[in-house]
Amino acid sequence: MKTRIQELRKKHKLSQEELASAVGVTRQTITSLECEKYTASLVLAYKISKYFGLPIEEVFDFSEVEEL
């Protein structure tokens, strides 16, 4: 799943460590999300989106998610 996390983090001049601390995860988790090696849980996606003051859909791209 593609995300705008890196773009938003840099726009707000945050390190991976600062964002990770703010949303309660490790820096490695933020790195994995930015490299698309990990998909955020709904709770984590909500925390990150809320941190940036954006709807989840503006931070995470769900266009490639298969419909049930």
Automatic annotation (TrEMBL):
Domain of life: Bacteria
Pfam families xref list: HTH_3
Keywords: DNA-binding
Ranges for domain HTH cro/C1-type: 5-59
Keyword DNA-binding (UniProt): yes
Alphabetized GO MF terms: DNA binding
The protein's name: Transcriptional regulator
Organism field: Clostridium folliculivorans
